[in-house]
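Continuing the series of single-chain predictions for the mutant panel. This is the parent chain; the variants come on the following pages.
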Amino acid sequence: MTCLRLLALTIAFICASSAATADDFSRRCPAGSYLTGFEGTAGAWIDTIRILCAHWDAKREKFDESIKIREMAGRSNGGNWTQAYCPDQWVVAGNYQPNFVWGDDEDVPVLHSIEFNCRPLDDNRFEPRTFGSTSSEAERFEYEPSIPPTCDEAFQGLFATGIFGTRRRFVEGLGFKCDAAP
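Parent structure:
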């Protein structure tokens, strides 16, 4: 297995197997919008994931209604519906931790869950959230260590505006795309 750290204005930690047929995915919030949560399906690991965004209304100095990016990453039909959202008027920022487990194919790690933080744009309060599997069965799997750089720590004042990663049948890698606050 090869693990890469990618750093530009896109920040990620992606673990990918040497096996073929993985393809990349990228989902970004519309211009002027920020990541506010995740929806998808999960069983013992994340089967599918999509992002939720909110558009910043500069005149009113607040976020409008949530925008669901319809296209899912991951191709599995398994798992149960799950979701994790930031509180109203908060966005995804700061530390995030993708947790990997060994999937059905022992050579391919898959994404078990994402621990992320929410915060308002105008101060540094954080509130933790987790999206993904809550399966007790997943505890028997070996976790892949990964502590990536973050939107806030790598580039001060940046917030999550999208995700990217690799997938086959399940989500295998995940990183956050980051932009400056409005």
